[in-house]
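Protocol step 4 of 5: obtain the predicted structure for the target chain.
Materials: sequence only (see below). No template structures provided, no constraints applied. The aim of this step is simply to have a reference model before the mutagenesis design in step 5. Sequence pasted as it appears in the construct record:
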Amino acid sequence: MTTAIATFDYATEPVTATACPVCGRDNPSRPTTDRYGFAIGLSGCVSCGLRYLNPRMSADQYMRFYQMAYRPLVDAYCATDTTGPRAVAAATKRASVLAVRWQTWLRQPVKTLLDVGGGAGTVARVLSNALRCPAVTVLDPNAEDVAQAEAVGCRGIVGAVETLPPPTESYDLITCLQTADHWLDPIAALTWMRQACAPGGHLWIDILDVPACATVYPRACLWKIDHPLYWSTGTLLLALRRTGWRPVGWVYLTTRDGQAVRYRPGFWCEGV
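Step 4 output (structure tokens):
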């Protein structure tokens, strides 16, 4: 048993078969092993092309997983502190570069911002300063991370976006940076954000385009229990259309030296 597997006993967790989270089609599941060494099932939708974990844990199980096991598991696998200074510096640089691009697309000031899956608020703080946004909210399933975000001036919400009650507030900008592959119900997540988007507001969402990544790293194991979804650009665009979003701008994320990562597309969206 590896150190990573020892931090979380996935084999003892009950799992349930699921249909495609984007189009609803039932698909066969094939057994495989994820990057941590866990035995998992994986489906590829024959209708829309989405790959996803099947069977998988429930929403409540994933909430417990993110509260207790996610960070130790990832840190053990990567043999580093994934929230340490180096990771914070990379996230800060990435957010700063994106904020510059977003300013060329913005048509009105950003007075309220929601960072979905925003962790401890590192990215939210950078965006708040760059966009001169006075009110920033961080949504994340990890209560400790949300408490850290609140400690530096963000408003915090503990939870998963796809299981929240209908929104009672609206936001000029909603951001999902490296978050969409953690969702269980992407249609519910995108629908909630569409309802929470203020008139004239925008959504930023980026993904790991798994088919594109596989062409660059053909031997890499891209499957992992903390990513129930495996997007392509086409499957994300389908989900956006189904939930009332229209991409009006896009860029590739970049490396530290400014090189475009062509399997990391991001989309600037407005409501239809």
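Step 4 remarks: DSSP finds nine helices and eleven strands in the chain. Residues 85-271 form a domain with the Rossmann fold fold (CATH 3.40.50.150).
Proceed to step 5.
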